Amino acid sequence: MIINKLLGVFGSQRLLQCRTFAMRIAADGKAIPKKKTFENRITLIGADNTVSIIDLKSAESLSLRRELKLVKIQDVDSKTRRPVYKLMTNSEYHEEELEKRKERQEARQRNSIKGQKLLNLSSKIGEHDLMTSVKKMIKLLEKQYEVQVILMYVGQDGEKVCEKMYDIIEKNTKSAGKLVQKRNKGNSLRFQLLPVRENSTQTGGVSDQNTNGNDKGPL
Question: Where is the composition biased (Polar residues) (predicted)?
Answer without folding.
Answer: 198-219
